[in-house]
């Protein structure tokens, strides 16, 4: 049976996901079979496994670091917020339904069997499980029904490393206060403290570290540096949204809608030299990009109305009229059509007009489409027409179905991935997406992940500007990510006491 170690944090964005990924990579490098695990994740960035099941992308990132295939077993419960007080609840990769926060809190303990079944299955097939908590274990109003922090540590009988974020200030108070708010049996599970995101001379911290160890009677097992590495982020906490990018030779602008999801679709462009990728929320920030990207969203209709109210929709329509490439994915694709209809109240209910850039109508269905796909680009017009025949792969997650007019050319030709699903007769060919002039849209997430796809998009945009870019300097995105995981592992090996962490892992709780 696998040994387990759990990473908890003093707050959201303390760096738990990154520490987990780094440990997954280190254990993998050291020859162990490793699996990440998070019993309950709240995120809008999600992923479709080869079985057609939905899970949070943070555990996908950690699985990549561990060198294993992502599995929904690694994230049995996923909460996708639909508004400020409710979420779509996904259990074992399938939609259970929409619940208010109060409804979910009343229901969640009934999901413990699902959590433990997933955990025990991983336990039987791996040497080490790296468990991630959520938020803080010291949320004293939530502790009684906890299934993701100390509640999960108890169910897995796992020792805990507690991570604090020094970059946001008050790290000693964070760590000490968290420990003090725990019950004695919970406190006893914490076997080590980690100070994360440190910049500067570590010796300056030494007096505080010594005092913290004296007060908590828990060793500090490392002071991890603030790392400038490119791995996938957890939704709205990402620092990508706040970057002030210098505009590159090729400038891409992503509309940062309030309920943005799966913005990881655009990460591949960040590894291409000469390309700027900016997230914008206002008309003044939009400027004159070479391509405007409309991302996925958990609430297409409300985010479209937000764009309509703040003037971004009008700015996009003006840019489209001038020939700027507009590219929508999933919810962003739906916005580009004529109408959006929600007869079942999947989102806000009712009907609204779309942007009218693509002659199509979208109706939100009660059942979610979840599938992996592979195929080829098939644009016949516009700046991206030379991409015709380029191979793509990705996945679809959407509640809406879009009906195209007979005259509208599809953007891609797809074959659904049938790995481990042949018995369900899903082996079908279909078209997806649409194009009209320089306006393109698709339901396929991850469509830019292949090196040649992102590279050819940039090359086409450069050619349209008359720029002589005989060679686009890019890196294979998968190779780029592998290098980032190695950099992360090297940094943690240097700054964490891995000998002590291995002792904690071996001894257990």
What are the salient characteristics of this protein?
15 helices; alpha/beta; globular; 509 residues; six-stranded parallel beta sheet; six-stranded mixed beta sheet; 29% helix
Could you characterize the architecture of this molecule?
The chain is 29% helix and 28% strand. It is α/β, with parallel strands linked by helices. Helix 1 (16-29) packs parallel to helix 2 and helix 1 packs across helix 14 (477-495). The longest helix is centred in the last third of the chain and has 19 residues, at 477-495. The radius of gyration is 23 Å and the shape is globular.
Write the layout of secondary structure elements.
Elements: E1 3-9, H1 16-29, E2 34-37, E3 40-42, E4 46-48, E5 54-56, H2 57-66, E6 77-81, E7 86-91, E8 94-100, H3 101-107, H4 112-125, E9 128-132, H5 150-156, E10 160-165, H6 171-180, H7 184-187, E11 190-198, H8 206-216, E12 220-225, E13 250-255, E14 260-261, E15 275-280, H9 283-286, E16 291-294, E17 296-297, H10 300-310, H11 312-321, E18 325-329, H12 331-335, E19 339-342, E20 350-353, E21 360-377, E22 391-404, E23 412-416, E24 429-432, E25 434-436, E26 439-442, H13 451-464, H14 477-495, H15 498-507
Parallel strand pairs: 1-9, 1-10, 2-9, 3-6, 10-11, 11-12, 13-15, 13-16, 16-18, 18-26, 19-21
Antiparallel strand pairs: 4-5, 6-7, 7-8, 14-17, 19-20, 21-22, 21-23, 23-24, 25-26
């Amino acid at each position: 049976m696998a040994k387990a170690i759990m990473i908890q944090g003093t707050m959201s964005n303390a760096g738990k996901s990154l520490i987990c990924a780094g440990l997954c990579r280190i254990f993998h490098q050291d020859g162990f079979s490793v699996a990440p695990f998070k019993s309950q994740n709240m995120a809008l960035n999600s992923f479709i496994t080869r079985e057609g099941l939905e899970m949070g992308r943070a555990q996908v990132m950690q699985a990549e670091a561990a060198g294993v295939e992502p599995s929904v077993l690694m994230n049995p419960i996923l909460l996708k917020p639909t508004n400020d007080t409710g979420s779509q609840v996904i259990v074992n990769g399938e939609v259970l339904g929409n619940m208010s926060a109060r409804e979910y809190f009343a229901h969640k303990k009934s999901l413990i069997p699902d959590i433990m079944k997933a955990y025990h299955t991983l336990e039987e097939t791996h040497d080490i499980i790296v468990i991630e908590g959520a938020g803080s274990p010291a949320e004293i109003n939530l502790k009684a029904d906890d299934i993701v922090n100390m509640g999960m540590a108890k169910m897995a009988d796992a020792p805990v490393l507690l991570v604090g974020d020094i970059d946001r200030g008050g790290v000693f108070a964070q760590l000490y206060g968290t420990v003090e708010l725990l019950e004695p049996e919970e406190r006893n599970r914490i076997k080590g403290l980690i100070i994360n995101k440190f910049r500067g001379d570590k010796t300056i911290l030494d007096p505080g570290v010594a005092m913290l160890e004296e007060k908590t009677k828990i060793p500090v097992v490392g002071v991890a540096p603030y790392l400038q590495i490119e791995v996938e982020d957890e939704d709205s906490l990402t620092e990508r949204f706040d970057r002030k990018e210098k505009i590159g030779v090729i400038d891409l602008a992503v509309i940062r809608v309030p309920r943005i999801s799966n913005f990881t679709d655009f990460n591949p462009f960040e590894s291409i030299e000469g390309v700027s990728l900016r997230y914008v929320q206002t008309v003044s920030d939009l400027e004159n990009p070479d391509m405007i990207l409309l991302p996925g969203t958990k609430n297409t209709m409300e985010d479209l109305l937000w764009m309509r109210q703040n003037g971004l929709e009008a700015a996009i329509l003006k840019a489209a009229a001038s020939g700027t490439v507009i590219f929508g994915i999933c919810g962003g694709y739906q916005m580009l059509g004529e109408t959006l209809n929600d007869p079942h109240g999947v989102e806000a209910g009712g009907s609204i007009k779309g942007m009218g850039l693509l002659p199509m109508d979208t109706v939100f269905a009660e059942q979610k489409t979840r599938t992996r796909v592979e195929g080829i680009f098939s644009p016949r017009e516009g700046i991206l027409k030379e991409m015709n025949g380029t191979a793509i792969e990705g996945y679809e997650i959407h509640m809406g179905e879009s009906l195209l007019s007979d005259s509208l050319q599809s953007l891609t030709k797809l074959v659904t991935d049938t790995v481990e699903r042949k018995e369900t007769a899903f082996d079908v060919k279909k078209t997806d997406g649409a194009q009209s002039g320089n306006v393109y849209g698709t339901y396929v997430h991850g469509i830019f992940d292949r090196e040649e796809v992102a590279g050819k998009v940039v090359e086409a945009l450069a050619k349209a500007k008359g720029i002589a870019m005989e060679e686009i300097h890019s890196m294979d995105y998968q190779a780029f990510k592998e290098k980032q995981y190695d950099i992360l592992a090297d940094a943690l090996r240097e700054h964490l006491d891995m000998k002590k962490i291995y002792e904690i892992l071996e001894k257990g709780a």
